[in-house]
Amino acid sequence: MARIIGAIGTSHVPTIGVAYDKGKQTDPDWAPLFEGYKPVAAWLAEKQADVLVFFYNDHCTTFFFDVYPTFALGVADRFPVADEGAGLRNLPAIKGHVDFQAHIAESLVNDEFDLTVFQDKPLDHGCASPLPLLWPHDPDWPGAVVPIAINVLQYPLPTARRCYRLGQAVRRAIESYPEDLKVVVVGTGGLSHQIHGERTGFNNTEWDMEFLRLLEEDPEQLTKMTHADYVRLGGAESVEQIMWLAMRGAIEGPIRKLHQNYYLATTTAMTVVLYESAGSADIAETRAASEVVS
Questions:
Q1: Whole-model pTM?
Q2: How far is CA 115 from CA 68, 101, 144, 155, 198, in A?
Q3: Which one is catalytic: 193, 196, 227, 259?
């Protein structure tokens, strides 16, 4: 059957995609970020992951506020990469896995999640900004993507606990699929940032580190927080962190952090973290090793 082999948390800042497309990987301002993704890309290549399940949000590219779903799942052979105003990106259309996507959709509805299902719609930087840093794409992507969009723009938003439970339901859906697929779940957005209003440029590194600690060790504490809590601690746009909770819900139980890179050079704390499931005996050793992770 399909199984989850790991999880990734990643920022989806649109300028990451712009810098990537302009070949700025070795630019002094960008190199620390791009270098931080290389261990994650190497791990994905080593594990030969078949599918990435992306929890992301659409930035009014495919959906607009007249009809903006709380949860939406894409089912298609291919998804175009959205032109968000800078022209079409030199990336192949993102591959889907229709049978697997349809199975997850049916399973989630049967698990009492009322989904919107979309086909052939473009995916914006919420998914497409970090994707080429994780997977090679010449001439094509090595696997498929299951895009699951979460509303973090138009109130009322789903609660942190609801997103965590969505991740748990996605895990049940994945593990009930009969094909032998290696799946990695990806939570995107954040961490602390605010790009409008009186607190434009706000960041909170202390909170970012505490969020990452709780995400690993005690995610239940994060599910008890309100949207106002997230906004107060991390800025208005840091409410995107509830998408990381969907990822964490999908990889239940003890986990071990294999890699973390935190880079604060713009208005957003750009972060990538890689996790695997871990038995309780591994946790102490893993935490000791993580002390030296940047």
A1: 0.92
A2: 12, 12, 20, 17, 35
A3: 193
